[in-house]
Amino acid sequence: MASSLHTLFFFLAIFICSSGYAANVPSNGLVLPVGKDTKTSQYYTTLQMGSNHATVNAVIDLGSQFLWFACDSYASSTYNPIPCGSKKCEIAKGIGCAGCNLPPRPGCTNDTCGASPYNPFENMLYSEGFAEDTLYSKNNVKVSELPFSCFQSEYLIGFASIATGMLGLARTEISLHKQVANKFKLPDKFALCIPSDKGVGKIYIGGGRYTTPKSLVSTPLIINPVSTYPIYTEGDPSDEYFIDVKSIRVNGRPLAIKTSYLTIDEKGVGGTKISTINNFTVLHNSIYKPLTRAFVKAAANMKIKSIAAVAPFRACFSVESISSFVPTIDLVLPGKNVYWRIHGANSLVKVNNNVSCLAFVDGGKEPRTSVVIGGHQLEDDLLEFDLVSSKLSFSSSLLLQNSSCSRV
């Protein structure tokens, strides 16, 4: 009898331990909501940090290296600064040591691993320190010891009024998707679906289950050999997400542009990257001008009436002359019949009740990157970034499939 009880307790203990372990491993990865601030057209997510579950509304930046947010009133018993010279500081690629002459608090500690959070809206780089704390998501996932940077809210110049920080999703060791992959032994991948003015999108981190559109097109993610971050060490590649656009078509007709603009040279100039920070796709002037001309001509053939331009756009149209269809724009990718098609909801933006404009802007004659695919072109598209296979899978507009980011 004693032996039977011992066996029963043994298996019961295994069950309890196994259940507790499983409860800490998210079956659906980490899921975060995505909203759009209508005033700034910035996309943000909401998460909780620290022992007090402080709410952080973080603008989503595919090109930013880590999470950073304002800590003016942040209080957490699980907050820990990362010491300079430590292994964690090395992984974070910390720069020097940060100090503070005021009483210690989150964001103000001595001998702390130096961080350089970047504000892309003001083109400002700040000197702060790295720390770590626990992140909590709305789908009850707990990510402990997550590296981030803490700073003062006065640095939030240019941010949406609701925002208190920035969530970086670049391909770094301390980005949220990499940390989730490492801690929970999940694949290093994430899916992003950003909404238009109405609705709520989602970020699925760790290969979570979501409603997959009928057709996903895949293309390789390529590496820009030169870092595009404001501060870097010589030899560092870019952490941003580039794809190999071969040509651009309007209504099936290729644009007459130099292919050299679409390639990345030895200085890291040129090519195509994806951005959630730029409101609209930004094009090298020598790409923008032929694209605009071709679109206006194709629109005229469809009886769409051109009217006076509204800055920053140069091709605008009368809303009442636009029917269900407008010219399509294709970003042609490697492979047979592989392209990213941009339809009306993503190619035009309504600037007032009477005017819609081609939602692309001129990036000048010497931009660092020739094509920067912006937020408006990403709305209601599902994007899956697979860092294991180094590929991007995308849906094009979900609206054409009677769906949206709110329903994925």
Give a description of the structure.
The chain is of the alpha+beta class and 408 residues long. It has two domains: 29-205, Acid Proteases (Cathepsin D, subunit A, domain 1, Beta Barrel), CATH 2.40.70; 217-407, Acid Proteases (Cathepsin D, subunit A, domain 1, Beta Barrel), CATH 2.40.70. 15% of the residues lie in helices and 32% in strands. The protein contains six helices and 30 strands. It has a six-stranded mixed β-barrel. Strand 21 and strand 22 form a beta hairpin. It starts with a helix and ends in an 11-residue tail after the last strand. 44% of the residues are buried. Mean pLDDT is 91; it is low at 1-23. GO terms for molecular function: aspartic-type endopeptidase activity. InterPro entries: Aspartic_peptidase_A1 (IPR001461), PEPTIDASE_A1 (IPR033121), Peptidase_aspartic_dom_sf (IPR021109), TAXi_C (IPR032799), TAXi_N (IPR032861).
Low-confidence stretches: 1-23
The mean pLDDT is: 91
What characteristic shape results from the CA principal axes? globular
CATH C-level class of the largest domain is Mainly Beta
Q: Helical segment tally?
A: 6
Overall structural class, as computed from helix and strand content, comes to alpha+beta
- CATH-defined architecture of the largest domain: Beta Barrel
Q: Give me the side-by-side strand order of the main sheet.
A: 2-3-12-4-11-10
C-alpha-based Rg, rounded: 23 Å
